[in-house]
Amino acid sequence: MTNETLSVDRQEIAVDIACVGFGPATAGFLTTLSQTLMNSDGSPAIESRVMPGAPLQVVCYERADDVGFAVSGVVTRARAIRTTFPALNLQDIPLATAVSREELVYLLDPIGASRRPWYMRFADKTIRALRRILPYEKEALRLPYIPPFLRKDDGLLLSLGQFHQWVASQLLASGLVQIWPGTPVAEPLIEGDSVKGVRLADQGVTKDGTPTESFMPGMDILADLVVVGDGPVGPVGRKLEEKFGGSKPSHLNEWAVGMKMVVDLPENCTLPEGTVIHTFGFPEPEIFGFLYVYRDRVASLGIFVPSWFQNPVRSAYRYLQHWMLHPYLWQHLEGGTLRSWGAKSLKESGKLGEPELIGNGFARIGEGSGSTNVLTGSGVDEAWLTGALLAQAVIQLAKNGQTFSKENLEKTYLKLRRGSWLETEATIAQHARNGFHWGFFSGLLGMSLAGFTHGMLHFPRRKKNHRMPSLEEFFKNRIAPEEIAQIRKECYAKGKSLHDALMTKAGWPEIPFDNKLLVSHQDALLLGGKVQAPDSYADHVLFLYPELCDACGVKLCAEMCSGQAITPNPNGGRPNFDREKCVHCGACLWNCTQAQPTDPDKTAVEFRAGAGGLHSAEN
Amino acid sequence: METILVVLNVDENGNLSKHALETVSAGVKLSKGLSSPFTVGIVGPKPELAAELIGGCGATHFLGVSAEAFQIPRYVTDSVLIENLANKSQATLILAPGSSRWNRVLPGVAHRLGGRADLHVGELKVAEGKLSITKWYYRQRMEAVLQRAHRPWCLGLDSGADAPWQGERGQVSVEILDIPINPAEIRTQVQGAKSPSTSEQTIRPDAELLFVAGAGWTKKQADGQAHPDRAAELILRFLQLSGASLGGSKSLVDLSSEGQSVLPFMTHLNQVGQTGATPRHPKGLATCCHGEEPHVVGWRFINERRAVNLDPNCGWAHGKADVLYVADAFQVMERLNALLEQEKQSK
Amino acid sequence: MSEGYHIVVCAGIVPDPLQTLQPVQTPTGWGLKNEMMLPAVLDPWAAHALYEAAHLAKKTPGSKVYLVSLAPKAKLQQVMMTVAQKAAFELVPVDGPASGFTEAFEVASALYEAIMGIAGLDRNKLLLFGGWESASRGAGSTLQILGEMLQIHDQFQGVDECTVNPDGSLQILERVEGGNHQVSVCKGPPVVLGWATGNLPEPPNNPQIGMSNMRTIMPALQKAKTAKIGADGVFFGSVELPKQLRQTRVVKDAQVDEIAREILEWIRK
């Protein structure tokens, strides 16, 4: 085994299939698999190798403390999900709602603080001037036409958390698979060019990993097949990429942070159930927003802050609040109440970010496998499909008594995946966002080009990614360098990130907290996210090079941190990390602006397996 | 027509506790409101003396139990005790202080008598000749007003539900009950009370002030280092000087019980909040604690609340405290201790 | 006690402690808004009882732990996935509501039926464990009533420690007023212990224990009997969230000395 801690006496258990992470992909995998594990006479359709006579032994380990603690505001055409559940009844899944109407809305800047290029300012002026003849309402322009590739006509709105609970409940009731939440997987067990299983995270250790009296070394789970569905920042997927190769380094920079809320809309809200609103243009041109209306006057809403938004203090939370306060949205939200809050990283490189999907003893599914469609902005159904396809492959191989070798997985899973609609659409989408590397307008144009020409035409990729500008460069002509220096000094001395102070200085109004929907970031964590971290695991965020942290002028890890878990250290060196505020979004991993001295493709932040996070099942 | 029984025990000094006197008030209130007779049942070595203390309360009948077997809090004997008092008085409403002793036994004995019980009862209200009680659900997160059809209805009253009874002493006649109990049924011997070790004696239920420490005391401070020893020193000194009772947030208590080098004197007994205690003190001072909702539910009975925290947006700021000082608790407590020292010396 | 104990742990499920709760009236009485959507955990006090049971069973060879739980089957199943890795037990599920607004007597009756149905349960080895208070009903009543139904008259509440003496008797520490413990010695089973927090930390997740538990948990859940639980004879006038918002004065930028003096004045007022 290649793993370091050989001296520790670790227990082992053997299963047939071990899954890492319970997301939509693994849910699709387990559901499809469990539908065929038993014959109608109660005998195993596929016999276990490790437990002869019994059906295939399948376990899934999930880091979060519950199967329902997932984050995503989902609008989906649900093609793959409906294939798995042909008789899907939305009434069975809390919050699930059919899409009834869609809006694509350009938001003007009502306060003048948005960082808009000249043509957008001109557009805003023109729209205001022509507001009587345009579909204009409250500083927003409803686009009369939504491109077909963005439409979700026959789609569903889901709460991923509730959908997970619903799927998991059926899976568990079948007794055919086991899903263990609260169980982070530390790493794959690699032997030569094969994956032999996974190692669970050590328990009974201090925050720095030192064993205590109650030390329990993470168990080794030996498996014939490891199904890796641990998402975009999962440690198992990333270890496999290190070993077996993955997406090109330039695609490491293609990310976004999605931050969202679930809101009880005010009683006077007139938005019909099933409404889908997509916004662009505000609070910054690079930030996109969504608002979906579930049944019973509940909405899921949020924004995406992408990696191409070159703002060294790109705080998603403050921007989310300004977005909600935009008059077009606030007319529906004012008087609403926060029910839930959450954030996650999204891998935005799509097919271009596809890692090695298979190898001896492992297969990758879901978002971490590059399944998200960056043109249609759809990921959950695609992830589900990858899992379902892998399950079909596994059934085929197991029934034929074949091993889960790379060769066999290539002939089955890979072949099925390459022949699916997922692949066709991902290929069309793969260059759709290149335009955003050049600017906002070219981004929109690039999306349209790729969408309307089925990927034939698209913007070229920008050769080199932008270096993150310094604060002084970014706020040039808006905040004087001396003022920035003063803010930096004051904030760092208090161990605070800078974004609030800088945004206020740059003209963004203070948020008028109403203690219901507009609440402080920490209250969103507590009231909405209910963030918790269990004891006995080591900290999962590590800053590997204190000297680099010291030299770092922007500390984007702290600025971007979705839960304010990372804060600047007043004494310099490594930032402080408080895992009891960490929502495991992983933004620190890809936002870090410092490259590792030994590997320039990696940042100086290590994001390991860790337990805890959000305790909300509605996101 | 209800018949009321108030069950009381005499404390080690032969007195009735404040909680017992509050229960007497509740009995008097019910008796008047429901126009019902009420009996007081007292267990103690000399129940007559205690009965004299409340002789003017208007009870129609006094029952006493003085046999030694019934003097100590123990389920087997206490349940027989209440069963006999209830049968003797034919009570339909049985009131007792919601102390550890009576809360242990009331639900079981209610079942034995064919009735129902409610513990942690707040207010008793009488309207239209019917009794309603208030009671908290989901760990003090919602309050219900309810009535019951079943009788007898046993009620363990929370402390503070009524003002302690203050009335004339009076000579009363106490009927001493001789309750038979088979010694073979007594399988439990109570050996006494065990006080927590000296370092844990920081819980003082009668203190004027509750001092609550949050996990912030153990976090890295401005110099990038954690100073748990200094925190412990400051807190203990403050408790000594001020006579305050010590409470902790769940996160701090959890850290301490893990054996981490935080505050060695902090145990689960100190935990205030939804999964901890709901102490009663006139004043409370929270330090290095975020004022999260689950914690603050444990402050339900703290009248005046102040907090010291570095975060001006913490929960305390949002209507949960009367005053929030945005400041470093290490510095504030150090200065406060110095002022208390000065005060002590000048006395 | 060489033959070990039969430890029956009664544990309901409650909403995960940090969830936002709101009472609502439902066709079947009072309940929580979105109750089925809220993530649930084992009732915290009862969870301590389970850890204590597992610990005692480990120290006393031949012991067996049963976890008797009344809860909606689907929710209980989900909670089991976080509990089953912590301690070895046999689940005795009863499918019914987990609401705090149900009557303790009715819950106790359902638990009694379930316990009486446990094959081979020996009353002379029986330790009935549970939490001293439920996080939903906000009081500790069910266990005492259940104890009465089982005719166990050695009952202890707020237990933080139970040790087995060499003669087989049990020394029990109960929380009493003033931060003290009452120390009692009971001859032995059967007893009822309503646990406070005890002294044990939450055990780590052990996948082996989990997998072994699962072999019996899922079949047990599939066979779980349904119990009709309500609140017969209880009439709720109202159920409300407390409104306790204060006008907070936030003191920023004050000198430490000034703050300390103000606090001292306030303390002495």
Radius of gyration of chain B: 23 Å
The global form of chain B is elongated
Write the CATH fold name of chain C.
Answer: Rossmann fold
Q: Over all CA atoms, what is the radius of gyration of chain C?
A: 21 Å
CATH structural architecture of chain C: 3-Layer(aba) Sandwich
| Structural class based on helices, strands and sheet pairing of chain C | alpha/beta
Q: In one word, what is the shape of chain C? A: globular
**How many β-strands of chain B, per DSSP?**
15
Helices of chain C, by number, come to 6
Distance between the termini of chain B: 59 Å
The CATH topology label of the largest domain in chain B is Rossmann fold
Number of helices of chain B: 8
Q: Give the averaged pLDDT of chain C, no decimals.
A: 93
Strand order of the largest sheet of chain C: 11-10-9-12-8-1-6-7-13
Mean pLDDT of chain B: 90
Search tags:
heterotrimer, A: 619 residues, alpha+beta, FAD/NAD(P)-binding domain, D-Amino Acid Oxidase, Chain A, domain 2, 8-stranded mixed beta sheet, 7-stranded mixed beta sheet, globular, disordered N terminus, B: 347 residues, alpha/beta, Rossmann fold, 2 domains, 9-stranded mixed beta sheet, 5-stranded parallel beta sheet, 15 strands
Q: Your description of this structure?
A:
- The complex is a heterotrimer of chains A (619), B (347) and C (269).
- Chain A is an alpha+beta fold.
- Chain A is built from 18 helices and 24 strands.
- Chain B starts with a strand and ends with a helix.
- Chain B is α/β, with parallel strands linked by helices and 347 residues long.
- The relative contact order of chain B is 0.11.
- Helices cover 28% and strands 27% of the residues of chain B.
- The model of chain B has no long low-confidence stretch (mean pLDDT 90).
- Chain B has two domains: 4-185, Rossmann fold (3-Layer(aba) Sandwich); 198-346, Rossmann fold (3-Layer(aba) Sandwich), CATH 3.40.50.
- In chain B, helix 2 (47-53) links the parallel strand 2 and strand 3 (61-65).
- Chain C is an alpha/beta fold and 269 residues long.
- Chain C has one domain: Rossmann fold (3-Layer(aba) Sandwich).
- Chain C has helices at 44-59, 73-83, 104-116, 142-149, 207-222, 256-268; strands at residues 6-10, 13-15, 23-26, 29-32, 40-42, 64-71, 90-95, 126-131, 155-164, 170-176, 180-186, 191-195, 225-226, 234-240, 249-251.
- In chain C, the strands form three sheets. Chain C has a nine-stranded mixed beta sheet with strand order 11-10-9-12-8-1-6-7-13, with helices on both faces. A two-stranded antiparallel ribbon of chain C has the order 2-5. Chain C has a two-stranded antiparallel ribbon with strand order 3-4.
- The mean pLDDT of chain C is 93.
- Classes of the chains: A alpha+beta (619), B alpha/beta (347), C alpha/beta (269).
- Chains in contact: A-B, A-C, B-C.
- The interface between A and C is large, with 43 and 29 residues.
- Strand 10 of chain B pairs antiparallel with strand 11 of chain C.
